[in-house]
Recover the amino acids of this structure.
């Protein structure tokens, strides 16, 4: 090869190399993007017909839609697809649907899971198949404690944090003796057990407890027993329609005027359904309030326009979880579960729901919590103006310390 031909060859080769490098740089993360089957598929497995439908259900599906819309409908140039189903609060039905999604429909992440038995069954199944779950609706502490999984996140709350934030400050404010009315299944038991430990640690006493068969409608007997116990605080370890029925009957018995009424898990739609007349004075731990600041109000207005109700904390948490999942896929350049989980733990997580939030090694999202008091009717100035925030409690002082965790993912 002559010198001139060598020079031309070298110049051509250099041009190809420069062109390839420029194309690689221009493509950015998408050059290495790995969307497993050309679509990111998000599944919402929720209660569409049972006692928790108002707290999650269609509202959680809408919250997922809002997150996808806000993100732009695509991630790494690939479409985002949403599917949903009703688990009917039955672990066998929920896990059967989850298995279909994972095996047949190639779902990337199963979300919401607003029932602890359904959540535990589904997260185990997904972990076995190397897929991801994001629990936003279920509250059993074991989800991110002894039953934690490397492919699962527990985004909104658990019974530990509800019990801690919902009781200890009130003991300090003077509620020294307590009586529990609890749903007789794992969720109610966990709330009662966690609440009892925090009340005792703060210097209070639990004088007794009544457990009722879930779901229930007649709370006369446990309420009268609680009234006769001598306790100055009556705490409800249940949720949804059962909680509303119990509070209504407590109001009818005049207990709101003579006792401090506390809920272990209550939402803004519970207050709305009860009305301020019946719910006034209730205290409980909350993870989100639509009227907290302009960022929360902006999301709530979008939700309200489509749903004609303000979002519950669980619905806002669902929006947050899905939005940050998509952010993590984009940042990781892949929907690979290990990469997404690694990226989520490295991200600064902030949105209309999550404040001062970090994802811990056990999969728990640590974020600010709020002790709220339901306003009296005359204190409410506009529709859905229902809460006073009594205290903001940072995540590090709310959630179970990692030193106490039984999660196998936590190094001690």
């Amino acid at each position: 090869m002559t010198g001139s031909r060598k020079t031309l060859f070298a110049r051509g080769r250099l041009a190809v190399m420069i062109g390839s490098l420029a194309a690689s740089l221009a493509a950015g993360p998408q050059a290495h993007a790995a969307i497993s089957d050309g679509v990111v598929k998000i599944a919402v497995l929720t209660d569409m017909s049972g006692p928790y439908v108002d707290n999650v259900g269609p509202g959680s599906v809408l919250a997922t839609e809002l997150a996808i819309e806000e993100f732009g409908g695509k991630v790494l140039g690939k479409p985002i697809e949403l599917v949903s189903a009703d688990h009917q609060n039955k672990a066998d039905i929920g896990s059967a649907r989850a298995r279909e999604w994972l095996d047949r429909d190639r779902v990337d992440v199963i979300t919401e899971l607003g029932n602890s038995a359904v959540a535990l069954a589904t997260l185990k199944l997904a972990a076995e198949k190397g897929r991801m779950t994001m629990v936003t609706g279920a509250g059993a502490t074991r989800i991110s404690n002894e039953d934690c999984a490397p492919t699962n996140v527990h985004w909104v709350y658990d019974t530990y944090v509800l019990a801690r934030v919902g009781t200890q400050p009130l003991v300090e404010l003077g509620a020294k003796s307590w009586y529990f009315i609890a749903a007789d299944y794992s969720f109610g038991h966990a709330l009662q057990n966690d609440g009892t430990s925090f009340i005792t640690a703060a210097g209070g006493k639990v004088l007794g407890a009544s457990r009722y068969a879930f779901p229930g409608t007649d709370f006369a007997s446990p309420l009268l027993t609680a009234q006769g116990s001598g306790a100055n605080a009556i705490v409800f370890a249940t949720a949804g329609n059962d909680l509303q029925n119990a509070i209504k009957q407590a109001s009818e018995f005049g207990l709101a005027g003579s006792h401090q009424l506390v809920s272990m898990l209550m939402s803004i739609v519970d207050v709305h359904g009860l009305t301020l007349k019946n719910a006034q004075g209730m205290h409980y731990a909350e993870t989100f309030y639509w009227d907290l600041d302009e960022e929360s109000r902006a999301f709530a207005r979008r939700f309200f326009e489509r749903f004609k109700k303000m979002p519950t904390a669980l619905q806002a948490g669902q929006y947050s979880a899905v939005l940050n999942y998509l952010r993590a896929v984009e940042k990781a350049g892949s929907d690979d579960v290990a990469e997404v989980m690694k990226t989520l733990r490295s991200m600064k997580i902030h949105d209309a729901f999550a404040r001062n939030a970090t994802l811990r090694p056990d999969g728990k999202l640590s974020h600010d919590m709020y002790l709220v008091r339901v306003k009296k009717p005359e204190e409410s100035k506009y529709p859905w103006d229902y809460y006073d925030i009594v205290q903001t409690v940072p995540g590090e002082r709310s959630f179970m310390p990692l030193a106490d965790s039984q999660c196998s993912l936590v190094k001690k």
Remarks:
- The chain has two domains: 40-157+292-368, 167-286+370-395.
- The two ends are 67 Å apart (CA to CA).
- Residues 152 and 322 are 13 Å apart (CA to CA).
